[in-house]
Amino acid sequence: MRHDQSEITSILQEAADGSKQAYDSLFPLVYDQLLNIAQLRMRHENRNHTYSRTDLVHEAYFHLIDVDSISWQDRSHFFAIASRCMRQILIDYARKKKAEKRGGDKEPVTYLDEVMQIEQQANELINLDEALNRLANLNERMAKVVEYRYFGEMSIEATASALGVSISTVKRDWAKARGWLYKELKDRF
């Protein structure tokens, strides 16, 4: 069921003002969209990943409601931040798994192909995160465009709305950022 954008925006503004009741009423309204974002995030993860879509949605939502300093602009802004939060949860998970593999108390896995695939996916995610952080240091808006468009699969229009810029600016930033990331990552994958 799709809810009116103004209804969600109104509840987000109440939540930003500290209303716990607003957060409680918000979750059912945004849950399906958060599941869609989680599914997009999990699409590139290993099939044996211990996070489910539901786990990712719930953990991200708990992070979102724990943030006191965010003033939600509107529904697009909320979903953009939710997408960023899910990305960070998965990156932290990949770093943890990589650290465990280097010397944690995890028992060795005998399926070499599976281990190599898990390590490669973790490395790709970590390399992409590091490249996005470098891009953010150069141009924070372009990095946000990549997050919203690639990870959140937001439309150009929704990205423009979330960032408060024009559609043509998002199109330019998207093209520049993809070129920059390609150049940065071409030798790493």
Detail the topology: elements first, then pairings.
Layout: H1 5-16, H2 20-42, H3 53-65, H4 75-103, H5 112-138, H6 140-151, H7 156-163, H8 167-185
Helix pairs in contact: 1-2, 2-3, 2-4, 3-4, 4-5, 4-7, 5-6, 5-8, 6-7, 6-8, 7-8
Structure explained in plain terms:
The protein is mainly α. The protein has one domain (5-185). 76% of the residues lie in helices and 0% in strands. It has eight helices and no strands. The protein has helices at residues 5-16, 20-42, 53-65, 75-103, 112-138, 140-151, 156-163, 167-185. Helix 4 (75-103) crosses helix 7 and helix 6 (140-151) packs across helix 8. It is globular and about 50 Å long. The N and C termini lie far apart (40 Å). The relative contact order is 0.11. The model is unreliable at 107-116 (pLDDT under 50).
Q: State which percent range the strand residues make up.
A: under 5%
Cα-based radius of gyration, to the nearest Å: 18 Å
Give the N-terminus to C-terminus distance in angstroms.
40 Å
Oligomer: single chain
Major sheet description? none
> Which descriptor suits the 3D outline?
globular
Q: What count of domains describes the coordinates? A: 1
**Global mean pLDDT:** 78
Helix content estimate: over 70%
